[in-house]
Specification:
The chain is an alpha/beta fold. The chain has 2 domains: 218 residues, P-loop containing nucleotide triphosphate hydrolases (Rossmann fold, 3-Layer(aba) Sandwich); 73 residues, Alpha-Beta Plaits (2-Layer Sandwich), CATH 3.30.70. 27% of the residues lie in helices and 27% in strands. The chain has 10 helices and 15 strands. It has a 6-stranded mixed beta sheet, with helices on both faces. Strands 13-14-12-15 form a 4-stranded antiparallel beta sheet, with helices on one face. The N terminus is likely disordered. The protein binds adenosine-5'-triphosphate and magnesium ion.
């Protein structure tokens, strides 16, 4: 059972299948559950002249896994920092697990976008230290194992690779057996294998009944993980829903991808709504795949065109349709 029974000293037994002993132990009396894990209303936050968050409203129900997706500078981190109690709002209200962000902190686990580690401490020591700050004792070795750091308990944090530090910061976010887990770009800097392992852990945390709120730039990460994606742009929520529902709203738009030289000027082909070069591939967005494929077929054999693939719409197309810009680059469409 999760650690929600007020006054109970029964240790939490989560991460079923990873061992028989509890990972966390505490004798804390915890507040009663609130229906909403996060309730943000009309949040505004500026830094001098920069309006980072502009009337942003967002609720996250208990047990949801929500991803904030948006380009650089959209206001994602600022929003999370207010939820984490690290910044005060200029206007609007924020409740976390039914409490003020400051009072909710004990029940919230946070992986900051950039966080410093005590470089002289070993991984085991820093996990134990953080857990004790929250009033927990912790099986650090199991938490290290769960976050892909098995065998590194005795390593000083200063001697970890960039990806290992990111994993340790994820482990630190779990030190207090949190009800709400906030992860600001948890997989940035991780190799593809580590990214998939982190996805598996995020899913596991969700299956245990925890609420997760994360940010990502990776379209495929938001699509793969989140039950609800909230697209944020220029400090506001511009769309939200399940990835499938958001994509379905676009209708039949597809992306035709083709290997071609940069000078092939495929943006002018019949039926192409938007064309962009990614690596050595052109990505042609269209609502009329037949017209584009016909035009491409006529030019196949010329100018080194080959390797044509057709892909259905993604959340990138949702962002493009709503803002006229690409999520990754922030650039305007070429159409
Ligand atoms: N401490 C700060 N002082 C001044 N401006 C800031 C500060 N932090 C953020 N900003 C500005 O506020 C806006 C929102 O930044 P924020 O970090 O919340 O965006 P983000 O969506 O998390 O971006 P990214 O995807 O790059 O992490 C940006 O224009 C940024 O330059
Ligand atoms: Mg950020």
């Amino acid at each position: 059972m999760p650690f929600s029974t007020a006054g109970s000293a029964t240790p939490a037994v989560r991460f079923a299948g990873t061992g028989h002993q509890a990972l966390w132990q505490t004798a804390d009396v915890l507040p009663p559950a609130a229906p909403l894990a996060v309730d943000i209303r009309d949040l505004r936050k500026s830094y001098g002249d920069v309006e980072a968050v502009r009337d942003l409203s967002l609720t996250v129900a208990r047990g949801e896994l929500v991803a904030l997706l948006g380009p650089n500078g959209a206001g994602k981190t600022t929003t999370l920092e207010v939820v984490e109690g690290l910044r005060d709002p200029d206007a609007g209200s924020v409740r976390v697990l039914g409490l003020s962000p400051q009072r909710a902190r004990r029940r919230v686990g946070v992986q900051l976008q950039e966080g410093a580690l005590y470089e002289e401490l070993t991984c085991r020591e820093i996990l134990g230290f953080f857990a004790r700050l929250y009033g927990y004792s912790l099986d650090a070795e199991r938490l290290l194992q769960l976050t892909g750091l098995a065998g590194l308990g005795g390593r000083r944090t200063g001697g970890l690779s960039g990806g290992q530090k990111r994993r340790l910061q994820l482990a630190l976010a779990l030190c207090n057996d949190p009800d709400l887990v906030i992860l600001d770009e948890p997989t940035t800097g991780l190799d593809p294998q580590s990214r998939r392992e982190t996805w598996a852990l995020v899913r596991q945390l969700h299956e245990e009944g925890r609420t997760l709120l994360l940010t990502t730039h990776y379209i495929e990460e938001a699509e793969a993980l989140a039950s609800r994606v909230v697209i944020v742009d220029q400090g506001q929520v511009i769309a939200q829903g399940s990835p499938a529902a958001l994509i379905a709203e676009l209708g039949g738009a597809v992306t035709v991808s083709v290997l071609a030289p940069a000078g092939a000027a495929l943006g002018t082909l019949a039926g192409v709504d938007d064309a962009a070069m990614e690596g050595d591939r052109w990505r042609l967005r269209t609502g009329d795949a037949g017209a584009v494929l016909t035009a491409l077929t006529a030019r196949l054999g010329q100018a080194g065109l080959r390797g044509v693939t057709v892909q259905g719409p993604t959340l990138e197309d949702v962002f493009l349709a709503r803002t006229g810009r690409h999520i990754a680059t922030g650039t305007e469409t070429a159409a």
